[in-house]
Design goal:
By secondary structure, the chain is an alpha/beta fold. It contains 12 helices and 21 strands. Bound molecules: pyridoxal-5'-phosphate.
């Protein structure tokens, strides 16, 4: 459930209609709903009630500081994957005691940043990384609290580019090598490996792969405990899927019940790292129709948003619902159109043969489910500006990242001496 609905004939984010916003802000722009972010966070938190847990929101899904702060105020922690994201989480007021740092390639500079901030946990993905972290921690005379990410070799049955838990993926250590790696960790200075982490992929629509991964995690934990390791933290990753179209996503309550059933008896502190589940359906990308063009075989609706603003369709063949901001009549005829952006790539296509009511130049469209992996993946390809992000709360709105104009971005370029006139 989200808070993007038609009110008085116009698509609104909570009580703010998107047509007014478009007039004020200019298109394209991202619009997020605070009530939806909060609703999704609470639903997930409620689903885990009774379990000693922290929800570490995956900042990579939507790293806007206002979005992170909205969630931090409800008690969320953060899962970060770079020094830049760590800075964002801290700036948003996430307590370091609720921050976990994931990713296969942390630099020693980033490790130092994490240790200086005193974060809850570093999720280590390889032995070389473990050794590097040990050097940094020992050099500072501190102890790094570590969870080692195991790769459970489970097929998440999601898109190949976002499945992460197979043996052939780059993530984590093979689960059956856990005994050696934890034994090695015990001997390294500055390392307390009291945790185990797992994350098998994103946009999972089936709980079965989770069940298998978490059972494996539990078995590894029990095995390590039997060898004398004090395993007291589990990180279950993120990845729960959301409906983009008419998919049936697993209800958080079912996920929560499964988690409690499988890992609850271990008595560990549990962290979970949802990103998409919280932010995905809490945002839309609003765009204006530039032209309608009839090709020999199909009609193209050319809009002012493009793949540089929202990459998911080009990168993952992702489906995004597209709706007119002006509510169409219930009996409006729908015709198949391709909705495309202005970029010089065929991949710059938001929808193929999508049945939409008639639209004309100047009309506004909302590309739905764009709150996660939208603005964060934007680039300035084709010399385009970075689009603004707006956060709505009830009848209020605020620009939470202004448009970065092409000219400002160009100012980062510099001429070498031999090209100066
Ligand atoms: C991407 C990622 C997440 C978040 O995934 P969602 O599908 O957005 O929930 C969580 N943990 C790790 C380690 C990730 O890489």
């Amino acid at each position: 459930m989200d808070h993007f609905t038609y009110k008085d004939g116009l698509l609104s984010a909570e009580d703010v209609n998107l047509a007014d916003l478009a007039d004020q802000i200019g298109t394209p722009f991202y619009c997020y709903s605070r009530a939806t972010l909060e609703r999704h966070f609470r639903a997930f938190d409620d689903a885990l009630a009774g379990l000693d847990h922290t929800i570490c929101y995956a900042v990579k899904a939507n790293g806007n500081v206002a979005v992170i702060k909205t969630l931090a105020q409800l008690g969320a922690g953060a899962d970060v994957v770079s020094g830049g994201e760590l800075m964002r989480a801290l700036k948003a007021g996430v307590p370091p005691s609720k921050i976990v740092f994931s990713g296969v390639g942390k630099t020693q500079t980033e490790m130092a940043q994490a240790l200086d901030a005193g974060i809850y946990q570093v999720n280590v993905e390889s032995e070389p990384e473990l050794v590097a972290l040990s050097e940094v921690a020992a050099g500072k005379g501190v102890t790094a609290h570590v969870a080692i990410r195991i790769n459970p070799d489970v097929d998440a049955k999601t898109h190949a580019k976002i499945t992460t838990g197979r043996a052939e993926n780059k993530f984590g250590i093979d689960w059956d090598r856990a005994p050696e790696v934890y034994a090695r960790a015990r001997d390294l200075p500055g390392i307390d490996a009291g945790g185990i982490a797992v994350h098998i992929g994103s946009q999972l629509l089936d709980l079965e792969p989770y069940r298998r991964a978490y059972e494996r995690l539990r078995d590894v934990a029990l095995g390590l405990r039997a060898q004398g390791h004090d395993i007291r933290r589990l990180d279950l990753g993120g990845g729960l899927g959301i409906p983009y179209n008419d998919e049936q996503a697993p209800p958080p309550a079912e996920y929560g019940a499964m988690v409690k059933d499988i890992v609850g008896p271990l008595g560990c502190h549990v962290t979970v790292e949802p990103g998409r589940l919280i932010a995905g359906n809490a945002g839309v990308l609003v765009t204006r129709v530039l032209y309608a063009k009839d090709g020999s075989t199909r009609r193209f609706v050319i809009v002012d948003a493009a793949m540089n603003d929202l990459l998911r369709p080009a990168l993952y063949d992702a489906y995004h619902a597209i709706v007119p901001v002006t509510e169409p009549a219930a009996d409006a005829e729908r015709h198949p159109v391709d909705v495309v952006g202005p970029i010089c790539e065929t991949g710059d296509t938001f929808a193929v043969q999508r049945h939409l009511p008639a639209v004309k130049p100047g009309d506004l469209l909302a590309i739905r489910s764009a709150g996660a992996y939208g603005a964060v993946m934007a680039s300035t390809y084709n010399g385009r500006p970075l689009v603004p992000e707006v956060l709505v709360s009830g009848g209020d709105h605020a620009v939470v990242r202004r448009r970065v104009e092409a000219e400002e971005f160009m100012a980062f370029d510099a001429l070498p001496p031999w090209l100066m006139d």
